[in-house]
Amino acid sequence: MMPVTVLEAGPEMAEQVAGLVRQLLLELSPGEIDEIQRMELFEVAEQLLGAGDLRALLAFQGMTPVGVVTLHQGASLHAGGRFGEISEFYVTPSLRSQGVGKRLLKSAAELALRAGWRRLEVGTPPAQHWPLTQAFYCNNGFTLIGERLRRVIVAD
Description:
The termini are far apart. The chain contains four helices and five strands; from the N terminus they run βααβββαβα. The chain has one domain (about 5-125): Gcn5-related N-acetyltransferase (GNAT) (Aminopeptidase, 3-Layer(aba) Sandwich). By secondary structure, the protein is of the alpha+beta class. Strand 4, helix 3 (about 100-115) and strand 5 (about 120) form a beta-alpha-beta unit. The chain is globular. The protein has helices spanning about 15-30, 35-50, 100-115, 130-140, and strands at about 5-10, 55-60, 65-75, 80-90, 120.
C-alpha cells in the first residue's frame, strides 16, 4: 500500500472534506444525497472550517484524499470540561482494514491533546446493521457509553 499522510484541513480543503462526507452519507443512506445537497455540504464545510467550529483531518494517498474525520468541541460537567466529538468518519472502501482509519483516529487523538480535550466521543450507526463500525472504534480504544438520540429544531 502506498503511504498515507494525514493533514488538518482548512477551509481551502472544504471540497475534499465535503466530497468524502458525501460518500459517507451515500453509503449510509443511498439515494438521499442529490447535487443540491452536494453543494450545500461544500458550503457548510467551508463555513464551519473557516470559523473554526469544525476541525477536519484528511488522509491522503499521494494527492488523493482517501479518508476524513471531522470533529467539534463539546463541553459538559460529566466529561470534566471540554471534549472532542467525532461528527463524521469515512475511509474509502478499498482501503478499509489497511490502517487508514487507525491512522486517522491516532491523528484525532493528537489533535484532541493539542486542543486540551479530555476525551473523544463518537456516535455510530446501529450496531445490528453496522457491527464492524462499532467493533472498529472499540478496537481503537473507545468504550460503549450508550445510545444517542436527536431532535431537529425548527422555528415555529
